[in-house]
Amino acid sequence: MINAIGREIPETINDYGPVKPFAGAFKAVPDMCRQAPRVKVVRPGEAKVLSSLEEAFHRAGVRDGMTLSFHHHFRNGDGVVNMVLATAAKLGLKNLKVALSSVFPVHAPLIEHFKSGVVTALDTNYMSGPVAQAVSRGVLAQPVILRTHGGRARAIECGELRIDVAFIAAPAADDYGNISGVLGPAACGSLGYAFPDAEYADCVVAVTDHLVEYPLAPVSIPQTRVDYVVKVDSVGDPKGIVSGTTRITKDPVGLKMAETAARVIEAAGLIKDGFAFQTGAGGATLATAHFVRQKMLRAGVTGSFVLGGITGYLVDMLEKGLFKKIIDVQGFDLEAVRSIATNPNHLEVGAGFYANPFNAGCAVNKLDAVILGATEIDTDFNVNVVTGSDGVIMGGSGGHSDAAAGAKVTIVVANLLRGRLPIIVDKVLTATTPGETIDVLVTERGVAVNPRRADLRDKLVAAGLPVKEIGELKALAEKIAGVPAKIKTGGRIVAAVEYRDGTIIDVVRQVEG
Which cellular components does GO assign to this protein (predicted)? Predict the structure, then answer.
């Protein structure tokens, strides 16, 4: 089949099933009810605290073929996934599906579980490091399902991703299962990506290294959704929350692009009272917050809210009165953790509230502007943030497609060349975010505006921004670096890329070697 952005999609994907091709960013209309987890009862005097993960497996009835879920709020500092899967291997379990909201280098032990058959399926929103490389080369029998952050919440709520047991890394918990992300030695801040898991899983196990007296406060996930509590030595290292994709660039070219992106927002007329803003995880995109802040200060503007992955820059803007609220589904650094613990205007929300397209209105719909990155962008403004120039998986949508769909103005900030290769191509290797939801591309050599937004182009030209056609920028990049050779991939599908509505926007095929 050919989907709405011209990608060739199979009618059926092995171990995935029949495919619904992507038809457009806002074409899908839901026709289902939300799923319901099993009803259970805990009688007075019954204890929830268990002695070990092994006991939790027995009490939860974990068996071959089940789906176990995890969150990624510790990012590259997570310790719970490896601990739980080591227990599964010890108990001789096979054919498990791991529903982990994002995969980082710390999760490299997954590869051995793939090879041994302990884990045979993976459902995630983002992958980097050894696991992504191994999947790209065909180590996993079934294709990985790559979702968006909002799409994962949708899939869980609507019953497409059914979770048997959710293991929630809990920075703090009490003996009745109340969980907090802002207390304890491993405090990570918001636990928003675990909210759907806790709400809809058949069984929920809190794994904590900080057991406190009942009742814990504040509560992120309540006792009513937690079946068991297991105390371990350490759930993870909060220093791993901060990684290379969450540090603001010091590169002069990156800073120039960030400043240009802020000028685009200003020229679009969005720097005004009530402004709502999100940045993605990337050096130049995060630096844009700095320049937006300067413009807000000069204009005497107070914004409504900032959204998404939260950094110290955004916390500082809240504390200086530039924004009234932070809506936080994930902390990107330790300043964000401190802020959500102390500031009542720093709000913790779940992934569904943040970006699920199938509810009565998610937060991304209220965004004025979002700043995002790209591995590639094509002349139709489709964006790739899944595969690198070698065809290997090195990321995923996360909230990219969600925020792009919701915002009034979506800006992609990217160097014209990436690793000596042009970032603008005729056709991206892997389509992640459809061009209809991308408004502006900002590079160090000029700004391109989607032809759908002639109104915006006129404003940018009037403001003196260096507006060029995307084809001009592509030609300039190719003049500098040449036309890149096409990547050769095999026929086998190693990942199915879902758009946020559950349709297939593209597939990833196995790389050679």
Answer: ATP-independent citrate lyase complex; cytoplasm
CA distance 452 to 438: 9
User: How far, in Å, CA of 167 to CA of 482, rounded?
Assistant: 49
Structure tokens at 394: 């090195």
Q: CA 83, 399, 289, 430: dihedral to nearest 10 degrees?
A: 100
* DSSP state for residue 426 in the 8-state scheme: S
Q: What is the DSSP string of 92-131?
A: T--SEEEEES-B-GGGTTHHHHHHHTSEEEEEES-B-SHH
Instruction: Report the pLDDT value the prediction gives residue 282, as an integer from 0 to 100.
Output: 64
Q: Name the residue among 338, 358, 425, 311 with its Cα closest to residue 35.
A: 358
Cis upstream peptide for 215 (omega within 30°): yes
CATH 3.40.1080.10 fits 49-240, yes or no: yes
Partners of 409 in beta bridges? 369
209, 172 Cβ separation under 8 angstroms: no
Cβ pair 51, 206 in contact under 8 A? no
Using DSSP's 3-state secondary structure scheme, residue 149 falls into helix
DSSP β-bridge partners for residue 323: 303
Q: Is 212 exposed, middle or buried (0-12, 13-18, 19+ CB in 10 A)?
A: middle
- Predicted pLDDT of residue 489: 87
Q: Whole-prediction pTM value?
A: 0.96
Residue 57 has which token pair? 């497996």
∠ CA 138-142-148, nearest 5°, is: 100
Place of tokens 């290292």: 237
Provide the pLDDT for residue 289: 87
State how far Cα 106 lies from the chain centre. Answer: 17
CA 290 to CA 106: how far, in whole Å? 30
Phi, psi torsion values for 428, nearest 5 degrees: -60, 150
Distance CA 361, CA 352 (A): 9
Q: Which residues of 85-122 are buried (b: 16+ CB within 10 A; e: fewer)?
A: bebbbeeebeebbbbbbbbbebbebbbebbeeebbbbb
Comma-separated ranges of CATH 3.40.1080.10 domains in the chain: 49-240, 244-488
Q: What is the CATH number of domain 244-488?
A: 3.40.1080.10
- Residues in the chain, pLDDT under 70: 243-248, 280-282, 513
Query: End-to-end CA distance of the chain, in Å?
Result: 28
| Separation CA 402–CA 199 (nearest Å) | 21
pLDDT of 486 reads 86
